[in-house]
Amino acid sequence: MPVDLSDALAHHGRGDLKRAASRYQAALAEDPDRPDALYLLGLVAFQSGDPARAFTLMEKAVSIRPEEADYQAGLGEVDRVLGRLDQAEACCREAARLRPDAPDHLCNLGALLVDRGKVDEAVGWFRQALAHDPDFVAAHNNLANALLLKGDASAALDHFQTAARLDPGSAEAHVNLGAILMDRGEPAEALAHCREAVRLRPDLPGARLHLGNVLTQLDRLDEAEACFRDLIRLQPNLAAAHANLAGVLEQRGDFDQGAAALRECLRLDPRHAGALALLATRLRGTLSDADFTAIERLLAEPGLPANQRRPLLFGLAQVLDARGAFERADAVAAEANALQRADLERRGLAYRPEAFKAFVDQMLSTFTPAFFTKVRGWGLETDRPVFVVGLPRSGTTLVEQILASHPRVFGAGELRLVKQTFKAMGGTVDGLGPDVLKAMARRHLDELSILNGSADRIVDKMPENYLYLGLIAAMFPNARLIHCRRDVRDVALSCWLTDFGQVRWACDLDHVASRIIEYRRVMDHWRRALPSPILEIDYEAIVADLETSARALIDWCGLEWAPACLDFHNTRRAVRTVSVAQVRAPIYNSSVGRWRNYEASLASLFSKIAD
Fold first, then answer.
1. What span, in angstroms and rounded, lies between the C-alpha atoms of 413 and 411?
2. What angle do CA 402, 578, 193 make, to 5 degrees?
3. Cα 409 from Cα 22, distance rounded (Å)
4. Can you give the pTM of this predicted structure?
């Protein structure tokens, strides 16, 4: 009689691979062509990290019993790991043909097709798997990831939520949910899922990485640093943990420690695109030739994934600009922005200028002089909030840093409070009354007090709050409003050369132009309609005469002069924007008139936006 494998299967199921293998080998000693023993011993070899031996054993099992779907699927997985993707796909297709009612085989085929870029077909297989088993968690997760690649983030979120509901103990499901919520700009919601993932699986690197990233996004830098350091203690050779820690340290102004973390990341993974890109962006003209060569060598590799190529190109553009290689810097930036546009399109996040223009039309028709007459006296009479607005790269971070250097001022960074309030209103003022407006203002003020309970002024420097100045003036008629202006050609160029993950309009020259035109229209409207005064301060004026500009800012906020405001670069505080390095250095004027270096290559853009 053939050797009974039930005991071997029991050992295998308990993870005792050594004993299981000895039983399978005993069966093969009796019958070298026994297919189940060949396949199972191959599975042990694969699970033990020996895919080459697994292939030899499983291939023989398949040759003896090609009609066995499990054998085909197992051999397909081994082929995938060995890089034999054509053979892997053939095996997975055969497994799905043999067992069209087996959701796991259908799901495996779909996962392989996603890896091969055949996302549309993969979606079909995942849906078939769910038709056979609507509660198949792996199929929901895989389908959600495929839908993300197709740009259908809303449907993807539904499937991730279903997976988490079906298997609330799955850390991976919570990680996926946290990641997509983070991508959708909902970090507070993402935080809960990332925390749950870490609770369920403290050893899962992705869980801690995502948790650290969410905490960083929420400006909880102490917690983010602790999270990444915990991960490094658990897995000291995980390069991504060192890279993410470097980002947090830089935001806190610890450049030396940040640089050390980047170097450790690159020691562990010399091809880490994120670390190389961050080095290039921060060091610019002082980047070493060795690092420059490493970036160019990596970019020259065929098949480098777009999500690695894009940040490298943006970093390289910064270095080339600093070295005076303007023509090549523009070409490199053009490629980087093309990849950025493609990624946004794929994720369904592409910028739609016509939609933004309609939004501006709505805001301007809502917040009129008549509206402000109606709501006079409804808001809170407090001068604690300070709002610094303007286009990205117009000097908002610099102005906040100057103000935050005053002992009575707290710089809160870029807050989402005003936009969240407007969204909570449903984007309309219909039904707005004095009690509702006061309640909204009090909630806003309470949120500021959580950030800092003692400072006389709290600065919110979210640039795009320029869109909501009408709501701000209604809630806080005594708030200090500061509008940062800069030659829009320098703004446009800086946006074009910068890796802006959240500024979706910055990667298309036509979109840059239309956004600037709409921004001007909005600010012209506020100058005519707003009852609250605005201090308009030019970046070029700050660079030309720091003390005069700084004194004007402090006086506008109703505070006494503090000499520390001139030494703003020595003020230690968290800075999350791409200007983090600039505000740690004294004033310099090399960014004024920088657009002239690109006057020829970007002439079409400049002609659309020039005063």
1. 6
2. 110
3. 72
4. 0.76
